[in-house]
């Protein structure tokens, strides 16, 4: 079971929107040095929605090469088209991916039975181990704990990224899924509390810019060092909150460039560069979280 701080890795791009593989390699080395527990690539933070299949696979292959077995790699494989999700999962498995992150079908708004069948079908057809991803704020679809419990330990389903920010779900998820089912927060602001309540880690946007701090906070929380974990989390709270002042990954890409982690903050439409007001807010947040000293 993977645990600790898993980064929801951005996909660096140049000003024309082409993938910047040189910056991507630098990010992998940054996370290796900082103690990040795993790399989650081409998820929603990695702009998977605007990468075609060939680009998606090339980014994953590159990260696998750069990591060279030194860090676990989880690859985004979600879709609101079950057939496409199966094909993507199969392709990822064929290039050596062990774990896939599969977001709930967006826009379709399936029932809980539809969600169950979607994931069961993907797992049975692809053979790829899946971490489910529940983020109703982005998809309009909420994967309920009872449905997660139905899916747990079947069809290669081994975990859940729970991004509702509702830490009260940890108890029901743990009760329904057992202690050998991985539970990851997908909400940085509440991730510390999520782990203190029994979660296994976080798939983190903040870790893109505060990798060592997030890794340490996770180690403290998972060890039960409540006071130390909460204190470090409070230091990082300005970053947690301000990274979502505009649609993710707009702010985090700007912040990565500001801290010198990537060459520039290139995005693909329909995402647009961080606004002047957003730049001012992020600059203040980086200072308050004591991250600007690295720049």
UniProtKB/TrEMBL annotation:
UniProt enzyme class: lyase
GO MF terms held by the record: 4-hydroxy-tetrahydrodipicolinate synthase activity
Entry keyword set: Amino-acid biosynthesis, Cytoplasm, Diaminopimelate biosynthesis, Lyase, Lysine biosynthesis, Schiff base
Subcellular location: Cytoplasm
Binding site for pyruvate: 45, 203
Function: Catalyzes the condensation of (S)-aspartate-beta-semialdehyde [(S)-ASA] and pyruvate to 4-hydroxy-tetrahydrodipicolinate (HTPA).
NCBIfam families xref list: dapA (TIGR00674)
Name of the protein: 4-hydroxy-tetrahydrodipicolinate synthase
């Amino acid at each position: 079971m993977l645990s600790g701080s898993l980064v929801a890795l951005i996909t660096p791009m140049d000003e024309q929107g082409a993938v910047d593989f040189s910056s991507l390699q630098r990010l992998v080395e940054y996370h290796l040095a900082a103690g990040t527990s795993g790399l989650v690539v081409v998820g929603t933070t990695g702009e998977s929605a605007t990468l075609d299949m060939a680009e998606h696979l090339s980014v994953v292959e590159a990260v696998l090469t750069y990591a060279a077995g030194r860090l676990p790699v989880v690859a985004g494989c979600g879709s609101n088209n079950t057939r496409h999700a199966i094909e993507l999962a199969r392709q990822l498995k064929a290039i050596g991916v062990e774990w896939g992150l599969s977001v709930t079908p967006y826009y379709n708004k399936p029932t809980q039975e539809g969600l169950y069948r979607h994931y069961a079908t993907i797992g049975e057809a692809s053979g790829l181990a899946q971490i489910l991803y529940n983020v109703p704020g982005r998809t309009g679809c909420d994967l309920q704990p009872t449905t997660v419990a139905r899916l747990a330990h079947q069809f290669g389903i081994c975990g859940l990224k729970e991004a509702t920010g509702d830490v009260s779900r940890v108890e029901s998820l743990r009760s329904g899924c057992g202690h050998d089912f991985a539970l990851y927060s997908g909400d940085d602001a509440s991730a510390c509390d999520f782990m203190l309540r029994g979660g296994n880690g976080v798939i983190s946007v903040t870790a893109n810019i505060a990798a060592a701090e997030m890794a340490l906070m996770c180690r403290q929380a998972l060890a039960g060092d409540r006071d130390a974990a909460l204190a470090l989390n409070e230091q990082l709270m300005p970053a947690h909150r301000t990274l979502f002042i505009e649609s993710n990954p707009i702010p985090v890409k700007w912040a990565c460039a500001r801290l010198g982690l990537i060459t520039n903050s290139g995005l693909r439409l329909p995402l647009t560069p961080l606004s002047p007001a957003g730049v001012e807010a992020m600059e203040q947040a980086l200072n308050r979280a004591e991250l600007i000293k690295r720049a």
